[in-house]
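Loading example: each entry is read as two labelled lines plus one structure line.
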Amino acid sequence: MRAVYYLSILVTILTLILSGIRGDWTWFLLSIIAIIVILLPAIVTRNFYMTYHQKVAVLFPIPFLAYIILVLVNAAVSIDNLEVYTYAIQTFAAMVCGMFLMISISASTNVQISKRWILLFSIAFACAFAIICTFMIYFGMVSDGWLVSNDDFKGGVDNTESNRHLMLPCFLTTFLSLIYGYLLRCLFKRIPKTEISLYYEVN
Amino acid sequence: MDKGKLSDGICILASIILIIMSIISITRAQRMSYEVNTGFFCAFFCLAPLILRRLKWVTLPLPFVLLIEVSIFLHAYGVLLLRYDFIPYWDTVTHTISSITVALCVFYTLMVVNEFDPDTKFTSKSIPLFIFLIMFTFSAYWEVFELVVDEMFGTNMQYSPWDTIRDLVCDTAGALIASIYAIWYMKRNSENSFINSLNLHPYVTKLILPFHKG
């Protein structure tokens, strides 16, 4: 458990650095959120060695490790449509962050959230993050000179590529979050409802 | 006047006006079937709060019914009289009002969950967060729906990236306004009085029960 905890902190910091170097600002933002989320139990309890239930805590480093590996592999062997894979992993990372945030809210405030609603809100968090990505992509498109406004597409100019580029994170998140949600639901069944919304000591 | 009857009257009035506008649209102008079908569909949808109340499923609050009717009416009016094409900000205004309506619906649903789900308890400070999360989810689903429809049927629901971003900003504004109202409402009103005013059918409350198994 201690190894998972330290690994979680390490991979989020590595992801922050790597995404910053690559200029991958959606992952940069997600890494900041992830660092806050993984350290929330420590912040709330003022004890660095407090974290989440071990069965959910093991999920945390997975998407960030996957991103790091993907980026390193891409550096060696250029991967086609890299953004599709990064957004797919990002969806899971956002869901995990959302899930931990809901658990934290349930553990440290008067709010009570059942397991199913934790799952629902983690899917919602992933969708919300996809929307934020969409805004960031839009500003990137404007600065890169893409056709973006209604006037640009007058006279029958095709808007397909612009719309696809903008909507890629939302599109992937909409469908993948449901698949990931089903997998997380299978995991949640193994955790008693009285145990999930608590903080635990890192052993 | 009884609030229920006033609510029914507003629904019927909005529906009649839209039916008349649709008929005028057919007789006076060369309207495509999309516009007229939208008019009749919206006219029928205006009756939804009335039907729900008459079936004793739920009695929606009067201000909310008014908001629903305004949202539907403005959209149908914009389509039938081509206001979307001739008034620059019509789309923005209607989208924002519709977003407020949906966000309020989310708020009311969370209040009902709060009441009937023993494993879930929201506070007045946490409700805005959940409203925003759910509204962003609906926004994402809707924009993806528009993209998929465009890809499959060659329509042009998504005019441009700017159009999509503007819709998302409207949705955010709608969620913000509804969240401010939610905080104000929860501070001034008890949850019980609101739930009682809904006159929920037991079948509707049973829909909430599956959520509290875990």
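The helical segments of chain A are 2-22, 25-45, 54-57, 61-76, 82-108, 115-144, 160-188, 193-196.
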